[in-house]
UniProtKB/TrEMBL annotation:
<feature type="transmembrane region" description="Helical">
    <location>
        <begin position="152"/>
        <end position="172"/>
    </location>
</feature>
<feature type="domain" description="ABC transmembrane type-2">
    <location>
        <begin position="38"/>
        <end position="278"/>
    </location>
</feature>
<feature type="transmembrane region" description="Helical">
    <location>
        <begin position="39"/>
        <end position="58"/>
    </location>
</feature>
<dbReference type="Pfam" id="PF12698">
    <property type="entry name" value="ABC2_membrane_3"/>
</dbReference>
<keyword id="KW-0046">Antibiotic resistance</keyword>
<keyword id="KW-0812">Transmembrane</keyword>
<dbReference type="InterPro" id="IPR000412">
    <property type="entry name" value="ABC_2_transport"/>
</dbReference>
<feature type="transmembrane region" description="Helical">
    <location>
        <begin position="116"/>
        <end position="140"/>
    </location>
</feature>
<dbReference type="GO" id="GO:0046677">
    <property type="term" value="P:response to antibiotic"/>
</dbReference>
<feature type="transmembrane region" description="Helical">
    <location>
        <begin position="184"/>
        <end position="203"/>
    </location>
</feature>
<feature type="transmembrane region" description="Helical">
    <location>
        <begin position="78"/>
        <end position="96"/>
    </location>
</feature>
<feature type="transmembrane region" description="Helical">
    <location>
        <begin position="249"/>
        <end position="271"/>
    </location>
</feature>
<dbReference type="GO" id="GO:0140359">
    <property type="term" value="F:ABC-type transporter activity"/>
</dbReference>
<protein>
    <submittedName>
        <fullName>ABC-2 type transport system permease protein</fullName>
    </submittedName>
</protein>
<dbReference type="GO" id="GO:0043190">
    <property type="term" value="C:ATP-binding cassette (ABC) transporter complex"/>
</dbReference>
<dbReference type="InterPro" id="IPR047817">
    <property type="entry name" value="ABC2_TM_bact-type"/>
</dbReference>
<keyword id="KW-1133">Transmembrane helix</keyword>
Length: 282
């Protein structure tokens, strides 16, 4: 007969958080990623390729949804990079560390459950913000997109998207048997985000049924919020792409913010239900 601890943090002890310890764990997480060439390529190499394509494709004269097509994609990349820096990175990392008993060893020490998980999440989010900073420089300097029209709304969307991706990654790692298998279990989310989030191709021109699926995809509200916040124009699904003030920007993004919050609730439930600290058996 064996006794297992709750799947996810429960109680005051589990909720104790020391930011300094989380930062040390974040640094360790990033160091381990840097030493793993496969992980580094997935997290840094692919986003770097997408960023390079923005530079190469700038000035081609094509338009999408009333603006330069490359600028449209660049603002969408601000959301899309969450898939690599946060979702895929954490799914693979949590799975590998669980199977290697690293999570179990960390959990048996002075660290709380939230510190063990939060250190990796913090490292992934910091990496995402670093990539986003590079994207903003490209948008401003190469694509003539200017600075973000509403930095506060942009930050809210980035943090909300990072939280949802981290929660979904935590849940998915629990049903992924090995780090190698994670390359396949993350594919549905990756393909859904590429095709139906609107980061590169507008959902408005797609069939109604496809739009309906795309609008409830996890990354879609993030794309809508970040593009609208950056450009100061209504780029929510069905929006008229008209110029918005600061208050108007938040108003048109209310449905997207609510959808993102709903995914946060769903992600938290899934993480508590499926995340595992112990290696999978059988």
């Amino acid at each position: 007969m064996t006794t297992t601890r709750p799947a996810m943090p429960v109680g005051p002890a589990a909720a104790r958080v020391d930011l300094r310890r989380m930062l040390r764990l974040a640094r360790l997480d990033l160091t381990l990623m840097w030493r793993n060439r496969t992980a580094m390529f997935g997290v840094l190499g692919i986003p770097a390729f997408f960023s390079a394509m923005l530079v190469v494709g700038s000035g081609n004269g094509n338009t999408t949804a009333g603006i330069d097509a490359v600028l449209y994609t660049g603002t969408g990349d601000l959301a899309f990079f969450l898939i690599f820096a946060v979702f895929i990175h954490l799914t693979t990392g949590f799975t590998a560390r669980r199977e290697e008993l690293t999570l179990k060893r960390l959990r048996s020490g002075p660290l709380s459950d939230l510190e063990v998980l939060g250190g990796s999440v913090l490292g992934a989010v910091l990496m995402y913000f670093a990539q986003s900073a590079v994207l903003v420089v490209i948008i401003m300097a190469v694509l003539d997109g200017g600075p973000p029209a509403d930095p506060v709304l942009l930050l809210a969307g980035m943090l909300g998207g990072a939280a949802v991706c981290a929660l979904l990654a935590t849940a998915l790692s629990g049903v992924t048997s090995t780090a190698e298998m994670a390359q396949f279990t993350v594919l549905p989310m990756l393909l859904l985000s590429m095709g139906l989030s609107g980061f590169m191709f507008p959902l408005d021109g797609m069939p109604t049924a496809v739009q309906a699926v795309g609008q409830v995809a996890p990354l879609t509200p993030v794309v809508e919020i970040l593009r609208t916040a950056y450009l100061g124009r209504d780029y929510t699904v069905g929006g008229d792409h008209g110029t918005l003030g600061l208050v108007e920007g938040w108003t048109v993004c209310v449905p997207s913010l609510l959808t993102l919050a709903a995914w946060g609730v769903v992600g938290a439930w899934l993480a508590r239900r499926y995340f595992r600290w112990e290696p999978r058996r059988g």
